[in-house]
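**Backbone shape codes:**
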Amino acid sequence: MTVNQILSTKGKEVYSILSTNTVYEALSVMSEKNIGAILIIEDTILKGVLSERDYARKIVLKAKSSKKAFVYEIMETDVVTVSPSDNLEYCMELMSAKRVRHLPVLENEIVIGIISISDVVKAIIEIQKETIQHLNSYITQ
């Protein structure tokens, strides 16, 4: 299964903010959209990603104010990305090796979607269900 197949199932909707937004504004969008990370996109260029983990480690644990801190102060700028043609195994290896939970999907340097560890796990479970069904039908023939 490829990233494109996951996106065709889950959708390609992407939520983004600007690096000049406050962390509080970013968290508000994340809460409203029920997402664990948000992309920072400016002039169609991916500049970074902000996750709940960034907030917890860089704001809460350092006793900073999310209403006074800006996204650019805590966002991850070394963003790990994938392409629509990448397969699930590659995504899993990347997420594990880079210790990330979200992978923006880029095509020609433009963000066309984002997949999460949850999306990857769901896809793997679906593949396993299909394999089990095929094996069961093979055995019962």
Q: What stands out?
A: The mean pLDDT is 95. The two ends are 27 Å apart (CA to CA). The longest strand covers residues 45-51.
